[in-house]
Structure formats: C-alpha cells, structure tokens
Write a structure and sequence with these properties.
Helix 4 crosses helix 5 and helix 5 packs antiparallel against helix 6. This protein is mostly helical.
Length: 274
C-alpha cells in the first residue's frame, strides 16, 4: 500500500507563480485573442440596450430582457470554454513543454476530455456535498436542540456542520489530479488512482491551493463589488474586461498548481505504488 508523502507546500506555490511569470509570453499567445474576443462580447452586451437602473427596477421590456439573458448565457459559456482551452494548454506547457499556439489555445479533443474530467469531478464533489449534508444536518440539529442546556453540545453541533461542509472540499482536493492527467492523456490517473496518490496530503494541498489562488480571489471579489457601484456603460465595460482577465489568470494559476502537484506525485511515487 502506498505510504503518505510530504507534499512541499511552499515549493509548489513558488513553482506555480514562477511558471506564470517565466512563461508569460507563451501564455499571452494562448490567451490574448480569447480574452480580446470575450471583452468585445461583453462590450456588445453592454451596448445592446443594457440599462442597469432599468434592469434593477424591472423596467426593461420582455424582448430586451430575453436578448440580454441569451447574450449573457452565451458569453458565460464561451468564456468558460475559452478558459478551459487555455487551461489545457497551460497543463501541457508545464508538463510536456508544448509549444505555444500560433494564434490562440484551440478547442479540440483534449479540451473535450478535460471537460469530461471536470464533470466527473463536479459530480463526485456534488455527491460528497449531499452526503455531508445528510450526515451532518440531523446530527447538528439534534445537538443544537441540546445546546441550550449544554455549551458542549452547541460546540459539537458547529463541529458537525463544519465537517459536513468540508467533506466535498476534501473529496475534490483528493481527486483533482485527474484534471492535469486528462490534459496530457494519462489514462492511468483515474479517480481511484488520484485518491490513493494524494493519501495523507489533503491539508498541505489545500494550503498550497490557498497560497496560489487566494490573492486573486480577493481581487475578483473587489472587482465584482466595483462593478455593482459603476453606472456608466463605458466603466462597466472596463470593469468587465478586468474581471475577464482576472478570471483567466486565476484559472491558469490553479492549472499551474495542479500541474506541479501532479508532477510531484508522479515523480515521488512509482506507478506500482499508485
């Protein structure tokens, strides 16, 4: 049976940022046109009769609302596919030293395989979330009922709720090696193999993920709040453009983190141990 190995938190976080800054020109070639296209699409939505005050006050007619909804859904789907294409390239750039595309990261079979891996991870994480709620909520409710008489029962109720919320995070972190594996067509790294490979490394992998992504997560929240305060269409377009860029960078950082984690585990644990 495979023994737990010490996951190098700071080294993986450092390599994640190092790859981003060292290989920025290749990343720009893969993502620049996608980002430009998404910014133009968001600008089209903003200039297609969008009125923030009318929308908030429900004064837009049905046709305008439908058009805005359709454009928004299309933009969201295209943005997700664009980010996925760039993420697949970034995995392959780090793990296989793949050359940068001539124009932009392509939508191809590798992206489709990656989407399938994302679906499997999302479904598994969703099932874990349901299991966590089913197991923790009755227990927490029962303990909360006793919490009026016993402070210990109240504390245990909070602990049960916390553990229920943590279960899907635990499962997703343990299984996430299937994503870089899908990008490089490593069919041996299944959900079961990822679970076995990451044994004993959950907390350190979670910490590395926070170090590699938390700064930009804060930036995304601030940028989103700024959009809510902006009334001018031109300013909204600029704010949306900033959000799009931050979204791409955030996804690339996470892809880099997973790629370096995947490389570490593959090098540290022989296939027979997995």
């Amino acid at each position: 049976m495979a023994q737990p190995i010490r996951f190098p938190v700071l080294e993986i976080a450092r390599k994640t940022y190092g790859s981003l800054f060292h290989d920025l020109p290749a990343l720009a070639r893969a993502a620049a046109l996608w980002i430009g296209f998404m910014v133009l699409l968001e600008a089209l939505i903003a200039f297609s009769g969008f009125d923030s005050e009318a929308l908030m006050q429900a004064h837009m007619d049905g046709l305008s609302m439908t058009r805005l909804l359709v454009l928004g859904l299309a933009a969201g789907l295209l943005n997700w596919l664009a980010i996925t294409a760039v993420v697949v390239f970034w995995h392959r750039r780090i793990l296989l030293d793949e050359q940068a595309p001539a124009a932009m990261a392509p939508l191809n079979g590798r992206v489709a395989a990656y989407v399938w891996a994302l679906i499997k991870l999302a479904v598994t994480g969703g099932l874990a979330a349901v299991a966590g709620m089913v197991c923790s909520m009755p227990l927490a409710a029962g303990l909360m009922a006793l919490g009026h008489e016993s402070p210990l029962a109240g504390a245990l109720a909070m602990a049960a709720s916390f553990l229920g919320m943590m279960l899907p995070i635990f499962v997703v972190v343990r299984l996430q090696l299937i994503l870089p594996a899908a990008a490089v067509n490593d069919q041996a790294m299944t959900l079961r193999a990822s679970w076995r490979t990451t044994k004993g490394s959950f907390l350190r992998m979670l910490l590395a993920g926070l170090l590699a992504t938390l700064p930009l997560m804060v930036a995304l929240v601030v940028a989103t709040g700024a959009i809510m305060l902006l009334l001018g269409v031109g300013l909204v377009v600029m704010a949306n453009a900033a959000l799009i860029v931050l979204g791409f960078v955030q996804a690339v950082l996470l892809a880099g983190l997973l790629s370096h984690s995947y490389r570490f585990f593959k090098a540290s644990r022989p296939p027979a141990a997995i």
